[in-house]
């Protein structure tokens, strides 16, 4: 098994833009606005471009794009909480120095019936035929593909004999259907977490 790929290198390799305030409805062909707090959902191309529901279908690839693992370590100095990768720990981290996420299953959601070139052509045609609609999306980002982490390990780095499996029991918040399984007093595994993307690739209109 190869050494873990560091998270910044992983993002660069796949040209991924992080979604700090993500939600399940962010999917291929959605529209995003880059603001100070990150990319914000602004709608979907189906609202301004022609095509029936089949045109906008997307699918989640079943196989992970990662061979081995991707590792992300974050400092917790001065923090009691953290919200990353669909996992929100709302408190109880005061004694921790850092937290390490080991991504094991990273999947991609892709459009089934449209391509970036086709979308660009449709948007250019919109600029010619309906300037009101074009102005409503001009400057926004189009998500071509979205990236989801289905499972990952979490290790909270804290000195001493802290019982985090007890301390964090009331502060760990995950999405519907997501499972949390403790490995020991400082490590746990998150599974079935693929509903909400953590990043996307795309282009700006």
Derived structural class: alpha+beta
**Secondary structure: number of strands:** 14
Number of domains: 1
Number of helices, where a helix is a run of at least 4 consecutive DSSP H or I residues: 4
Mean pLDDT: 92
Q: Provide the succession of SSEs.
A: EHEEEEEEEEHHEHEEEE
Amount of helix = 10-25%
Low-confidence stretches: none
Global shape: elongated
- Taking all Cα atoms into account, the compactness measure Rg is 19 Å
- Strand content is 35-45%
Largest sheet: 11 strands, mixed
Termini Cα gap: 41 Å
Give a structural overview.
- By secondary structure, this protein is of the alpha+beta class.
- It has one domain.
- Helix content is 16%, strand content 40%.
- The strands form 2 sheets. Strands 1, 2, 3, 4, 5, 6, 9, 10, 12, 13 and 14 form an 11-stranded mixed sheet that branches. Strands 7-8-11 form a 3-stranded antiparallel sheet, with no helix packed on it.
- Strand 3 and strand 4 form a beta hairpin.
- Helix 2 packs across helix 3.
- It is elongated and about 65 Å long.
- The N and C termini lie far apart (41 Å).
Mind sketching the topology for me?
Elements: E1 5-6, H1 7-14, E2 17-18, E3 30-35, E4 38-44, E5 58-60, E6 70-75, E7 82-84, E8 87-89, E9 96-111, H2 116-129, H3 131-137, E10 141-158, H4 164-167, E11 172-173, E12 179-182, E13 187-191, E14 199-204
Parallel strand pairs: 1-6
Antiparallel strand pairs: 2-14, 3-4, 3-10, 5-9, 6-9, 7-8, 8-11, 9-10, 10-13, 10-14, 12-13
